[in-house]
Amino acid sequence: QVQLMESGGGKVQAGGSLRLFCKASTYAGVGYCLGWYRQVPGKEREGVASIDIENTPQYADSVKGRFTISRGESLNTAYLQMNDLIPEDSAIYYCGAMSGGYCPALRYGMDVWGTGSPVTVSS
Fold it and tell me: How far apart are CA 18 and CA 39, in angstroms?
C-alpha cells in the first residue's frame, strides 16, 4: 500500500515563501502522479498543483506564477515551492498520489492522501 510522507509548511508573512515536500513509498520503479490539494475549515478540498511522471505540471489559476511544482531526484518525490504567499493561501495542504503516473484534472481527487501540512500566511 502506498504511503505518503510530507514535510514543510509553517507560518510566514505575506510575500514570503515556503516549500513543501512529499515522498510516496511505492514499489521500486512504479511512478505515480503527485500533487497538492488544500482545504480550509468549512470548504471543500481544492487542487493546487500536480505533476505527472513526464514532469508535466498543472496549476490552479489562483497559484499560477507564484507556485512551482517539481519532481525530486528520487522517483515519487516532489516539491511545491510557494512564493509571494498571500493570506488566502492559508490552509492545510495535503499531498496526494495517483497510480498510473498521469494526473487527473485538479477538480478531481487522488487515490492516496497524506496527513496534511498546515500553512499560515499572516498579513
Answer: 17
